[in-house]
Amino acid sequence: MARTREQRGEQETKAAAAKVKKTGKPAGGARGGITAPVTPSPDLAEIVGKDALPRSEVTSKIWEYIKKNDLQNPADKREIVPDETLAKVLGKNKVTMFEMTKLVSQHLK
């Protein structure tokens, strides 16, 4: 007989609770890669804040900043024309949205 999603969830929760009780350590979960908290550099902190946050949240906040300050090229929305603050992070006067992620990663620890 197939388990429902609720049954599967309950069983996984019980298994995680048992593991925590047995090892004394908190359940792992997804805290690596894009969800791992990172600390922004001082230049990047001007845009996203100084607190540690996941890479996905850093990217979201950068896009909020870009849209709020109208930094996308109107002719080609994939292209970003940074203002003075964002240029400190990107190091260029024009980048594509694909380059942006690579350049921002240099400002994360």
Walk me through what this model shows:
The structure is a single chain. The chain has 109 residues and is mainly α. It folds into 2 domains: 1-28; 33-105, Orthogonal Bundle (MDM2), CATH 1.10.245.10. Helix content is 51%, strand content 7%. The chain has helices spanning 5-23, 42-48, 55-68, 84-90, 97-105, and strands at 37-38, 53-54, 79-80, 95-96. Helix 2 (42-48) packs across helix 4 (84-90). The chain is elongated, with a radius of gyration of 20 Å. The protein starts with a helix and ends with a helix. The mean pLDDT is 85.
Radius of gyration: 20 Å
| Biggest sheet details | 2 strands, antiparallel
CATH H-level superfamily of the largest domain: SWIB/MDM2 domain
Segments where pLDDT lies below 50 for 5+ residues? Answer: none
